[in-house]
Amino acid sequence: MLKVGVLGAGHLGKIHLRLLNQSQKYELVGFYDPNSDNADKVAKEFGYQKFDTIAALIAAADVIDIVTPTLSHHECAVEVIKAGKHVFIEKPIANTIEEADEILQLANQYNIKGQVGHVERFNPAFTATKAKIENPMFIETHRLAEFNPRGTDVPVVLDLMIHDIDVILSVVKSKVKNIYASGVSVISDTPDIANARIEFENGCVANLTASRISMKNMRKSRFFQKDAYISVDFLDKVCEVVKMKDAPEVPGDFDMILQNAEGIKKQIYFDNPDVAANNAILDELETFADAINNNTTPVVTLEDGTEALRVAYKIIDCFKK
Questions:
Q1: Which of 112, 129, 158 delimits the end of a domain?
Q2: What is the C-alpha to C-alpha distance for residues 4 and 94, in angstroms, rounded to an integer?
Q3: Range(s) of the domain holding residue 238
Q4: Which of 38, 80, 162, 200 could form a disulfide with 174 if both were Cys (CB 3.0 to 4.6 A apart)?
C-alpha cells in the first residue's frame, strides 16, 4: 500500500484527506499546512497526523498530493520530485508555462510519475460516453457558475474553462491551429466571462464559454461528429447519445426517420450508455495509485496538464490584443 501525504488542508485539501484516508490503495501518513491554526484545527477535528515541515511529510511518504494554491504548485512539486517521490498536483499544474515545463522536465529526469487533478476526466457522464466520441468535428461547451469570491484572483479561463480545455484536448487527436477569444471583467480585476474558439489542424472547431457571474450553474458539453451527436452534462452527470444510420426500406411504426433534400433517409436512434455513480476525486487518486503500482501511464499526465495550461494562456493572451 502506497504511503501518501497531503500538502494543503484547505477546502479541497480536506476532501482529499478524507478520501485518501478511506482508500484501500493508500495509507494516509498525514498532511502539512503552512497555516498553523488551520493545521491544528484539522488535526484535532479529524485526527490526521500533522507534520511541521514539508520536508518531514515528504520523507514519510511515497506519494505527495499537492492541494495548495496554484502559486505554490511549482515550488512544492520541485521539492517533491527532487526527493524522488511521485506527485499528484491539483489543477492547474502550475501558475505559468515555464513552471509547468520545469516540473515536466524534472519528473522525466528523476523518473517519477505525476498526475494532474483534472477531475472532469473521471466524471461518470464523460467516462460513459468517451469511447463513443470518435472523431468530433464541432464541440460546444458551457461552464457557468454563480459568483463566488474564491478563485477570482485568476481569470475565469484558469478557474473554470481549463476543465473543458483538458477534456477537449483528450478527445481531439489533432494539434491546435488557431485560437480566437474574448473576455470581460465585470466584477473582478480579471475576466469573469470568456468565450474561445479553438481550431484544430484536422478541421475540428471547439467553441467554449465560461462564466463565474451566471444566475445558474451549468456544465454541459456537446460533441458533433459524423452521424452522431453526444451531449454530456457534467453537473447533473447525465448523457445523451443520438446516432443516425441508413433507414430501413420498410420503417417501423415508431422509427424516427429524417429525409434530406437529396432524398436520402436516415433513422435516428438513441444509444444512451449507463452512467455508474462514482466519486470522481477518489477515482482520480486511485487510478494514480494503479499507474504507480503497475508502472503504467497516468490518466491525466503532467504533459496533459501542461498542454491544457498552454492553451489556456493562449486564450488569455487573446484578451490583450
A1: 112
A2: 21
A3: 121-276+310-319
A4: 200
207 domain-assigned = yes
CATH code of the domain in which 176 resides:
3.30.360.10
- SS3 of residue 31 by DSSP: strand
Q: Of the ranges 174-178, 260-264, 272-276, which is most confident?
A: 174-178
Maximum alpha-carbon separation in the chain: 75
The pLDDT, as a whole number, for residue 207 is 98
Whether 170 and 121 have beta carbons less than 8 Å apart is answered as yes
**Identity of the residue numbered 125:** A
Tally the domains of the chain: 2
Q: Inform me whether the pLDDT recorded for 229 exceeds 70.
A: yes
Coil/strand/helix, residue 14: helix
276-313 pLDDT, tens digit each? 999 999 999 999 999 999 999 999 999 999 999 999 99
